[in-house]
Amino acid sequence: MYRGKLWTMRQYAGYATAAEANRRYRYLLSQGTSGLSVAFDLPTQLGMDSDDPRAEGEVGKAGVAISSVEDMKRLFQEIPLDKLTTSMTINATATNILAMYAVAGGESGVPISKLSGTVQNDILKEYAARGTYIYPPTQSLRLVIDVFEYCSKLMPKWNVISVSGYHMREAGATAVQEIGFTLANGIAYAEAAIARGLRIDDFAGQLSFFFASHNNLFEEIAKFRAARRLWAKIMRTRLGAREPDSMKLRFHTQTAGSTLTAQQPENNIVRVAYQALAAVLGGTQSLHTNSMDEALALPNERAARIALRTQQVLADETFVTATIDPAGGSYYLEALTNELEAQASELIKRIDGLGGMVRAIEQGFVQRMIADSAYEYQKKIESANAIVVGVNQFVEREKTRTDTMKVDEEARRKQVMRLSKLRNGRSQSEVSATLTRLEGAAGGDQNLMPYILNAVRARATNGEISHTLRGVFGEYQTPSF
Q1: End-to-end CA distance of the chain
Q2: Total count of domains within the chain
């Protein structure tokens, strides 16, 4: 019987400056959280520095602005990186941000081998659902596997990827599609790593997954159980894994932002609690509970505290962690698990028939399926065949006022000033030399992580590193399907 907690507690930090996010991290650590999650703003995710003209109006609006290793050091100032795990929402520029985290850790006295956490690094779902890609799929996949190879040798405590069904579900995918597309992406990454020459059992234990938890309680529990069973079969029979740890589906769950409403936002507290319960009953190892004001703004402190307390009540007062797989054996849950597993398996076979997940995305197959599912669900809401409390049923005419967090509009100016100071204080010749070496390596087939780490140590910025790679790889333009 399991008597501990099944997950680390994470909270989202979406603040313009690293210093403000650091303040929030310190608060969360004082409140009993044992892991931290950081989302980066859109310019950071798209390989733009905060002083890029295209970044104006976006700095700090969807996460923390990180342009250099100095920003990363401010983000985690005096936070012991060898004592907790850090989960980072970053994809196209995952190599750059992971390098900055590693250098920040090293310069604070924490060896790279001691760093523990996860980098999202799931670029395929960006083409399918989310859109924060930079380079074409083949080159992007190369960078993903560079992280696999580097971390399998030098960062054994680091999860090299979080294969993320969450964003596809948020875009409109069904539960079956979330399982099928996520595991198909996992297959694509694993097969690419094997093609690179890596042994499956050398990196499989560093793979992690990321799912959403929606409102259909039983379907969500069954979804997690089906995904876990199916992945074990894929690893053993298709990918040739032999180690038991390689066959585990280790996954993080976030409650569903797309289900939360601007109307009657207090209702979202209840939605999140039920979604969190489904995740725990389904076997999640890590959990993020969204804040009640998700549909309105980044979370204010009160909303973030309620979200954290939701997890703590679930963990410490409900005793749902007293046993593993408490839903196992239920006739309905077992039948539903079997049904979801079978349908997801069929979907993966369809994707194989198209040539694999990369080809399926390039042909628009995945995007069309997600768009069609989203459209069908929206029609159900508008016809009230799917009830959303406070939106199409039980509506209140009187509007309630909700205090929301406001991002300091001075944040970008301050960030740009710090970036200017960095540029003026570094050795430009050293930066140029490291970027030239990176450019040469990118034109070949070497692992780029060591070159990016050297550029970061020289104080090259995220934008400069990304610009160098753009010059070699080009930029991906979304085709019309």
Answers
A1: 51
A2: 1
What would the DSSP string read from start to end of 83-95?
Answer: SSEEEEE-STTHH
Q: What pLDDT, on a 0 to 100 scale, did the predictor assign at position 2?
A: 28
Of 323, 246, 256, 318, nearest to 287 by C-alpha is 256
C-alpha radius of gyration, the chain, whole number: 22
In angstroms, rounded to a whole number, what is the distance separating the alpha carbons of residues 96 and 455? 9
Place of tokens 């006739």: 331
We report the CATH number of the domain holding residue 277 as 3.20.20.240
Single pTM value for the model: 0.93
User: pLDDT > 90: what percent of the chain?
Assistant: 78
Angle of the 18-30 helix axis to the 301-317 helix axis, nearest 10: 30
Range of the domain at 97: 9-382
Q: What is the mean pLDDT of residues 180-204?
A: 97
Q: How many CA atoms, within 13 angstroms, populate the side-chain half-sphere of residue 446?
A: 13
Q: pLDDT at position 289, please?
A: 93
What is the DSSP pairing of strand 9-10 with strand 12-13? unpaired
Residue 41 DSSP class:
P
- Element (DSSP H or E) covering residue 208: strand 207-213
Q: What does the pLDDT read at residue 26?
A: 81
Establish if 401 belongs to a structural domain: no
Is residue 341 within 8 A of residue 176, CB to CB? The reply is no
How do 9-10 and 35-39 pair as beta strands? unpaired
Q: Name the token pair of 306.
A: 């309620």
